[in-house]
Amino acid sequence: MTGGVMDRLPGEAGAAPVAAAAEAEAEEEADPPAADLPAPQVSERRDPHPSRMQMPQGNPLLLSYTLQELLARDTVQVELIPEKKGLFLKHVEYEVSSQRFRSSVYRRYNDFVVFHEMLLQKFPYRMVPALPPKRVLGADREFIEARRRALRRFINLVARHPPFSEDVALRLFLSFSGPDVQNKLKESAQCVGDEFMSCKLAPRAKDFLPADIQTQFAVSRELIRNIYNSFHKLRDRAERIASRAIDNAADLLIFGKELSALGSDTTPLPSWATLHSSTWGSLKQALKGLSVEFALLADKAAQQGKQEENDVVEKLNLFLDLLQSYKDLCERHEKGVLHKHQRALHKYSLMKRQMMSATVQSREPDSVEQLESRIVEEMQLVHVYLPLTSHILGAFVNSQIQGHKEMSKVWNDLKPKLNCLFAGPSGSPTPPRLPQDGVSPR
Q: Taking Cα atoms as reference points, which of 217, 35, 209 lies closest to residue 122?
C-alpha cells in the first residue's frame, strides 16, 4: 500500500488447497453448542457531575490512536489447510499466524464461532465484526476462498481493536496450541462478565459524555450509513475493474496461443496456391514468435488484477466490515440489548452474588449512559479508520500507472516484430493501409 503505511495482506492461497477445501467444506461438522457463559455485569451507580456539557480535554473516552498505531498492533495471516479425517468426516483447517505473538496455530471455523461468541458476551457494546457464513450447499472454490479472506479480515480487525487486543481471549485464540481451544476460551470467560466489571470509569460515564449525546449519536449513525453505502458501490466497481483485468489476461493468453497454433500449422499447401512464394512460411514463423509477447502481456494483466484485488478490493472490504460492525452495534442498541442485558444481569446476580466483586444495580438510566459511552468510543474508532480511504485510492492509482506502464513496454517491444508481416515485394516493410469507406476526403 502507498506510503508504507498499510501492511500487505497475506498472499493468495494456492489453487490446489482451495480446490481441495471446496470438496471438504460440504461435509464440515455441525455447529458447536452455545457457550454457557455468565451474563454481562454493570457496576454500581454514582451520581454524575451536574456541570457536564461537553467532552473536555483529557476525557478518558477520547481515543488518541492513529491509523498507523492501530495497524501496527498486529498483522494476522489466515491460510487454508484442507484436511480429511476418516472415511466420512471431513473438515477445513486454517493456519492462523500472528506477528505480535509470534505464533502459528491451527483453527477450524467453529473455533472462530466460539471466539466470536466470547467477544459478544464480554463486549456487548463494542463493534464485534461479523463472521462469514459457515457453509452453503455445494460450496465451491470461490466460496472457500472468499470465506478465508473474510476470516482474515475479521481477526485483523479484532486484533487491532484497542480493548479486544488486550483481552485474554484474543491471546488464547492466537497463541494457544492445545487440543481444545474452544473449552479453553469458555473457561477463560467463566464468572468474568462484561468489561464494565473491570472498568473503573463505567460508573462515571455521565461525567464524560456531552449533553447532546443523543443528537450526536443520530448524526453519526446517518453519516456512517452514507459512508457505508458509498464504499459499498466503490467496492463493487473495484471488483469489476480487477475482474476485467484478470479476464483480459485470459483473453491475451488465448490470443497468443492461437497465433502460435496458426504459426505451427503443418498442413501442406498446393504449389498453385502459393505460386512458389515463401510468404506464408515467413508469416507463420512471425506469428509463432508473437505468442511470447502475448503471454507476457497476459501475465502483466493478471498481476495487475491480483494486485488490485489485494490492495484495493480487500482493503475496501476491510473497511466495509468495520462499518457494518458499527451498524450492527447500533441495531443491537435499538433492539433492546440493554433490556436483555438487565434481565440476564438480575438472574445471574442472584445465582452468583458471592462470586461477583462488583455491586450490581439494575437502574436503567445509568446503564444507558454506560452503553452510550462505549458507542462514543466505537464511533471514534470508525473515524480513526477513515484515512484508510487515501491509502486505498493511492494503491488503485499506483496499480493502474504501473500496470499500464509495464504493458505499454511489452506492446512497444512487440511492434518491431510485426515488420516482417508487412514486408512488400522488395522485402521492405510496408505498413498496412486503412480500407476506404467510399467517402473521399475533401
A: 35
Closest to 392 in 3D by CA, of 327, 312, 334: 312
Give me the helices (H) in 42-140, please. Answer: 67-72, 109-122
The total number of residues written for the chain in this structure: 442
CA-nearest of 116, 115, 157, 164 to 374 is 164
d(CA 406, CA 31): 49
d(CA 281, CA 265): 10
Q: In the beta sheet, which residues pair with residue 429? A: 423
Longest dimension (CA), the chain: 106
User: Which set of grid coordinates corresponds to residue 25?
Assistant: 467444506
Model pLDDT for residues 393-423, shown as the tens digit of each residue: 999 999 999 999 999 999 998 888 877 676 5
**What one-letter code names the amino acid at 396?**
F
Distance CA 235, CA 314 (A): 9
Residue type, 277: S
For residue range 271-305, what is the model confidence (pLDDT) as tens digits? 666 655 567 777 887 788 888 899 999 999 999 99
Distance of CA 133 to the CA centre of its chain: 14
User: What is the separation of C-alpha 94 from the centre of its chain, rounded to a whole number of angstroms?
Assistant: 16
Name the residue with cell 468495520.
322
Q: Which residues contact 23 (CB under 8 A, 6 or more apart)?
A: 82, 90
Nearest in space to 148 (alpha carbons), one of 109, 114, 100, 175: 109
C-alpha cell at 137: 450447499
Cell matching residue 351: 445465582
**Residue 341: closest CA among 374, 364, 357, 325:** 364
Grid cell of 385 as nine digits = 479508520
Three-class DSSP category at 214: helix
Q: What is the pTM of this model?
A: 0.75
